[in-house]
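Final report, closing paragraph on structural work. Over the funding period we assembled a curated collection of sequence-structure pairs, and we close with a single example.
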Amino acid sequence: MSFSALDSELVGPLFATEAMRAVFSDRARLAAMLRTEAALARAEARCGLAPEALAAAIEAIPAEDLDIAALGQGTALAGVPTIPFVKAVQARLPKELERSFHKGATTQDIVDTALVLQMREGFSVMAADLFAIITALAALARQHRKTPCVGRTYGQHAAPVTFGYKAAVWCLGVAEVADQLPWLKSRALVASLAGPVGTLAGLGDQGPAVADAFAEQLGLGTAPIAWHTRRARMAETGAWLAVLVGALAKMAADVAHLASTEVGEVAEPYVKGRGGSSAMPHKRNPVSSTVVLAAHGAAQGHVVTLLTAMAAAHERPAGLWHAEWHALPQLFGLASGALHEARALAEGLEVDADRMRANIDATRGLLFADAVAARLAPQIGREAGHALVEHAAEQVRTSGAPLREVLANQPAFAQASAGEVLDAAFDLTPSVDAAAGWTDRALATADRRRERLSSPDR
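Its predicted structure, as stored:
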C-alpha cells in the first residue's frame, strides 16, 4: 500500500498527472543519480582526477538494471539511498574504474543534485499547462468582458461586475505566479558538489574547478559555497508551488460556488461519468474544483516541512534534510494535478449568461443600493443618502417589494429628483463599462507575462 498520493495507484491519478509522477518516480531518481555521477566523472577527468573512460562506463548502466527493492532495503539500513546506490554501481564497473567512482563527493551531493535535475524536468512539465491556462482564461475574460453578473463580498450580493472581470482576476492571479518561475529556476536549479563537510577538501586545490565543471556538465548553476545546509532554495521552491496552487484554488473556489444549484451561473465541462454520486444519480459534482482545492489544502503542510528544514545544524543535520524528501515531490505532484484540472476549467467552463442576468435581479434591486446612495450623496449628503437607502433595503427584505418601488414612495427621496436618480442608479452600463476597463487592463499585463513564460531564454 502506498503512503502518498503521488505514488498511489489508486488515488495518484486523481491528484497528480502521470507525467509528473514519472518525473519523480524511483526509476527517474536513479537515472538522475546516474547522470549526476557521470557528470562528476567527466568533470574530474577534465581536471585529471579520474580516467576518461569512467563517465562512459557509468552512462552505460541503465537505471532499469538496478534492483530497486534491494536498494530500498539497503537504504533502510544505511539511512540514505546513496550508499547502496554507490555499491550497486561500483559492482557494475570495471575494477580499474570503480576506485575513481564517486571521488570527493558525499551522499548529499548526489541526492540533492539528482533532485534538482528532477525539479528542472518538473518545471518543464508544468510550463505548458501554465501557458495554456493563462491563454484560455484571457480568452474567457475577453469573451465575457461585458457579460454582467453579481459581484459578491462575504458570500452575499454586493454590486454588479462582469464575468469577464472575474475571469481576468483569475487569469492575472495565475500569470503573476508564473512570472516568478524564471527567477525561481535561477535560484533552485543549482548543482551541489561540496564533499563531506562542504569544502571538497578531498579534491585538493582542484575542488572549485571540478565543482564548476560538474555544474556545467549538467547545465545547472554553481554555488559559491556549499548549500548542504542553506535550504532557502528548497523552501522557496515549495512556497512557489503552494502559492501557484493557491492562485488556482481562487478560481476553483469561485467555480465551485457559481456551479452550485442555487447559483447555477457556470458548470464544469461535461465528461460522461465524471462528478457522479454513488447514491444520487442526478449529481454532477465539480470534480476539477475539488481536486484543486484538495491540493491547496494539502500543499500548505509540505511548505512548513521545508521551512522547518532550514534550521539545519552545522554542516549536515539529522532528520531535517530527510524530511524534505517527503515534501518536494508531493508539492510537484499536487501542483501538476491542480494545473491539469485548472486547465480543463479554463478551456471548457460552461457559462450561463442568462442565469447571471437573472441573479442580478434576485434581490429585487438591492444590488444597486450602492449606486443609489452614491447618486443621492451630492443632493442630500453622504450619510443621509446611505441611511435612506439602508432603511429602504430593510423594507425590501421584509415586504418583498422591489427597491426602486420602495425608494420612489419615500417622501425624502421624492424631493431628490427621484426619477432621474433612479434611472441612473439602476443602469448597468457604468458598472459593466468599469469592469470591462479593468478587465482590459489586467489582461494586457497577463498577456505580457504569458509571453515571458514562453520565451525560449526564460
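Confidence is low (pLDDT under 50) at residues 275-281. The radius of gyration is 29 Å. We thank the funder for supporting this effort.
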